[in-house]
Amino acid sequence: MPWIDSHCHLDAAEFAPDRDAVRQAARALGVQTCVIPAVEASHFDAVRMLAHQHGDVYALGIHPLFTPQASQTDLHTLAEALQQHRTDPRLVAVGEIGLDGFVPGLDMARQQLFYQSQLKLAQLHDLPVILHVRRSADLLLKGLRQTPVKGGIAHAFNGSLQQAQQFVDMGFKLGFGGALTFERSNQLRLLAKALPLEALVLETDAPDIPPHWLYVTADQRAQGMPQGRNTPDQIPRIAQVLADLRGVSLDTVRLATCANVCSVLAIDMG
Question: Quick one: average pLDDT of 55-64?
Fold first, then answer.
C-alpha cells in the first residue's frame, strides 16, 4: 500500500509557481493520494479540480480562520456544492472546519456558528469531517456530542490523551505531521507512542507546519531566509520519525496509517 498525505493544501498560493512539480515529486516517493481540504468558499472549485487532475481526493468547508470574512452566503454555497457533487467519489469529507482558540482576535461565537452549521451539513450528507483543532478540543467535542457525525480526522492533534480517546471513541483518527519531528515536542511524542496505531494518520498540512529539517528559525528569518515550505513528499520521512518513536518498521506505519485514512474517509485506493 502506498503513502497517503491526509491533509495537504495543494491549492495554496505558495504552490502557484510549481504546483504540478510538487505533486509529481510526492508521487515519485510513493505518496499516491493527498487529501486536499478547502479553507473558504472561493477555493471549492480549485480543490475539486486539483483532486481530479492529480488523482487525489478533497473536502469542502470553511476554516475557522476564514470565518471573519465568511458569510451566510458562503454556507449556502457549501450546501449547494455538497449537494451538487454528492456522487463524486473524490469528495470524501466536510473540511477543513473547526475552532481556533489560539489566534487572537477571533470571535469564538462566530466560529461556533460556522462549526455547528457545517457539522449539520456533514450529518445531512453522511460525510466525515476534517477538524481544525487548536486549543479547542473540548469545545469541538461538545459540538460533536450535540451534532454527531460520521467520524473524521482531528487534524494536527495536540491535546491530552483523554481528549484523544474521546475523539477516537467518536470515530475519529488523529493527524500527526511535522510537529512530531521536533525533539522538544514531548507531549506530542508521548501521544504518538501511547495511542493505538489504528488511531493515527499522517499529514503534512503543506505548505504549513514544516518538519524540523525544513524549519527556519526566527533568527534566520530576521536575516532574510524565508520559512521552509512544507510539501507532501515529506510524508515518508515524517513516517520514519513515528516508526522510530514506536519502535516499529516503516512498513508497519505505512500500512496502518494508509488503511486508517481509507477507512475513516471511505477512500478506495483501487
Answer: 98
Residue ranges of the alpha helices (H) in 125-231? 137-146, 161-169, 186-194, 218-222
pLDDT level of residue 224 (50, 70, 90 thresholds): confident
Q: How many angstroms separate the CA atoms of 73 and 269, rounded?
A: 35
User: Does pLDDT of 269 surpass 90?
Assistant: no
The C-alpha angle 184, 186, 192, rounded to 5 degrees, equals 125
Q: Give me the residue spans of the domains in the chain.
A: 3-265
The three-state secondary structure class of 235 is: helix
pLDDT of 134: 96
Q: What sign results for the dihedral spanned by CA atoms 269, 10, 125, 80?
A: negative
Q: What is the dihedral of CA 179, 181, 182, 188, to 10 degrees?
A: 60
Q: What are phi and psi of 21, to 5 degrees?
A: -65, -40
Nine-digit cell at 142?
461538545
User: What are 50's three cell numbers?
Assistant: 486539483
**Hey, is 256 helix, strand or coil?**
helix
Between β-strands 91-100 and 129-134, what pairing exists: parallel, antiparallel or unpaired? parallel
CA 56 to chain centre: 14
Check: pTM over 0.85? Answer yes or no.
yes
Q: What is the mean pLDDT of the chain?
A: 96
Cis peptide before 80 (omega within 30 of 0): no
- Confidence band (pLDDT; 50, 70, 90) for 219? confident
**AA identity, residue 137:** A
Which class does domain 3-265 fall in?
A: alpha beta
